Amino acid sequence: MTTVSPTPDTTPAATPLTAPQVSVTPSPPPSMRLRELAFGAACAAAVRAAARLGVADALGETPASAADLALVVDAEPVPLQRLLRALCCYGIFSETPDGTFVHSEMSRLLREDDPNSLRYIALWCTEPWTWEVWPRLDDAVRSGTSVFPETFGKGFFEYLHQDAGESAQVFNRAMTTSSVQSAQDVADLLDLTGVSSVVDIGGGQGHVLASLLEKHPSVHGTLLDLPGVVARADVRLRDGGRLADRVRIVPGDCREDVPVEADLYIIKNILEWDDESTRRTLRNVVAAARPGARVVIIENLVDDTPSMRFTTAMDLLLLLNVGGAKHTRESLVGRMSEAGLQVGEIHPVNAYLHAFECIVP
Questions:
Q1: Parallel, antiparallel, or unpaired for β 264-268 and 220-225?
Q2: 3-state secondary structure at position 247
Q3: CA neighbours within 13 Å on the CB side: how many for 300?
Q4: Are 353 and 271 in contact, with CB atoms under 8 Å apart?
Q5: With 290 labelled, which of 188, 284, 320, 336 sits at a CA distance of 20 to 30 A?
Q6: pLDDT tens-place string over residues 181-236
Q7: pLDDT confidence bin for 1, thresholds 50/70/90
Q8: Which residues 6+ apart lie within 8 Å of 113 measured at CB?
């Protein structure tokens, strides 16, 4: 049998006077940082291009050259290499010393098959209409209202469903992705001791409700949302689904009425319309609930989160497209108190969501 003898270590011993040479890249000065921020659209466009081309899906577990990837995604090798190098500057993909590319933690999130995929959220945040409303942010700040109707001749959701079918599909996929990923966080957070019935107000396709019912087999649930939304409810909740015998699906608009009595009401990420709609929704919940019922309101905050760059960006986009706003802790507590709710503890759900525990007096 052949063996390989260890090679004697002939490396000179370090002396106390020998210090390792560390290359430190200095932070860019403010003037360059501002230039980089002004070019922020280039980063967003690069993320969108990578998502649409499917570069992250094409790159496997072994390093690949831009030429190799170009064959898979039907692109020109040199421009694709330029795109990848731009993305590497932000930690999306990494370039090896030999010029090939490998995945980073963030680039994996652009894969369609990643369990935490953000592909559709990245596409949604960079849809074609966004490039037309962002340059008018100064107009929205001056007026305090949406610029969408003036820009496109109709309201945001009307435009989305009538004139931008592909964008509407991206929106639905993005909202589903976001809801599915946060649903388990909500289910892990909430203590349902003593709760036999829960209603998810404006709960979309019911991913949060489904996660709660799976974790708590004795609890029954109701999903309330617009007719077109609940028609696409999670398959677990629909007829024949494994949770269907414990679920009631109620089509309706919570801004008009909440025709459900339950032990626990969940309101997640829907109190970002105009103030009057928010007030009506909360008043409707208080009117429907019996004294002592719990109300858990889950929202992004723009003043108390480790992800403020993300939440403040969403806040500005809401201003542009529907004239809405994300809440501060103070503004949300104020709306709850005005509606007559007794506000209790506030818990972080994850890096970008907070849960406000309330009681109906």
A1: unpaired
A2: strand
A3: 20
A4: no
A5: 188
A6: 899 999 999 999 999 999 999 999 999 999 999 999 999 999 999 998 899 999 99
A7: very low
A8: 57
**Are 262 and 224 within 8 A, CB to CB?**
no
Place of tokens 């609940």: 230
Total Cβ atoms within 10 A of residue 234 = 24
Q: State the pLDDT at residue 15.
A: 37
CB atoms within 10 A of CB 232: 14
Enter the tokens of residue 340.
């007559």
Q: What is the mean pLDDT of residues 145-159?
A: 95
**307-337 confidence digits (pLDDT tens):** 899 999 999 999 999 998 999 999 999 999 9
Nearest to residue 126, comparing CAs of 72, 38, 50, 177?
Answer: 50
Amino acid at 5: S
pLDDT at residue 24, rounded to an integer: 54
Q: Which two tokens stand for residue 333?
A: 């507590």
Distance CA 226, CA 252 (A): 5
pTM of the entire structure? 0.84
* Cα 196 from chain centroid (whole Å): 30
The H-assigned helical ranges of the chain are 30-38, 40-53, 55-58, 66-73, 77-88, 105-108, 119-124, 130-133, 137-143, 148-152, 156-163, 165-189, 207-215, 227-230, 275-288, 308-322, 329-338
Above pLDDT 70, what percent of the chain?
Answer: 93
Q: List the structure tokens of 20.
A: 């390792």
* Number of CB atoms found within 10 A of residue 172's CB: 17
- The residue with greater pLDDT, 95 or 1, is 95
- Average pLDDT (18-29) is 61
Amino acid (one-letter) located at 277: S
